[in-house]
Amino acid sequence: MSKTVQISSAAQFSDLLKSSRVVVTDFYADWCGPCKVVAPIYEQLSASLSRPNQLTFSKVNADTQTEIVSQYGVTSLPTFIIFKQGQVVEKVGGDPRKLQEVVRKLAAEAEGGSNSSGFGESSNGGSWRAGDLPKGYGDVTDQVDVKGSSLLNADNEFGGVGVLFDGSKPSGLQKGKAAEGQAKDWVESDTDEQLMLFMPFNSILKVHTLQITSLPPASEDDEVPMRPKTIQLYSNRPHILGFEEAEDIPATQTITLSEKDWDSTGTATIPLRFVKFQNVSSLVLFVVDGDGQGDRVRVDRLRIIGETGDKREMGKLEKIGDEHGE
Description:
The chain has helices spanning 10-19, 33-49, 66-71, 96-112, 243-247; strands spanning 5-6, 22-28, 55-61, 79-84, 87-92, 138-139, 150-152, 187-188, 195-213, 228-235, 253-256, 267-271, 280-290, 298-299, 301-311.
């Protein structure tokens, strides 16, 4: 279900600007070709970054909401206007890259918790990410095509693939009443400890770092799920791999995690061999085994850190570069 707010009156829009700290607004028209081109990107940003009362995405039909169009001086379509505390802070034309750059900056501010926009981990519904970003790189998790992603050997009693990219604070880090009654917002393997995740991207990425959060409860019970230990990454695959197929294909990189790699938030920050991940249209992440004697592995969140490049032609995954490097 779309999180984007469709504006039907000037009064509704005024109320939205008062109720949400940041509002990103798409001024469009049904007849506008460029508007239709940018619309899927806008919806993806909205789906991955919307935060109740903190960061809201809205759409204004320029043909039916002429009062709002006139009030904010919109003369071309599409136009994207960013409001903070009800005030215009930036206008962006129909350039998808510029739009994504501006919105990702807002999201990074939201996740950092130390900025003038007033976002923070303690805000209800606020976005969450563990650890600092490597200098010069940004969180590009919003570029994951969640609808096109798939997960093998996941227990369907827990969250689906979408929870891995959710920006909310994992329930495993919340205590007492804050965590009561919440859905199981993590992924666990099913028949054994292996998981296979396929992530296509909306743009060609340079992937610098992965952040994996795993929050199994403290217990010596063998039934308690484990954190991932051995992870294999495969770049630019056109589809998810089968488990037997993965055994026959050299991984782009193999990672072995130990207890010291997990910080106080249950997050492991994994620098990649950057030269191997320069032109990435998709990633397959294969959790080979877990760190312990159990039969299941748990993953709560996944973050991708890097840079975005050209927008990928949707529906077409190409093998780019050296995908089988050691």
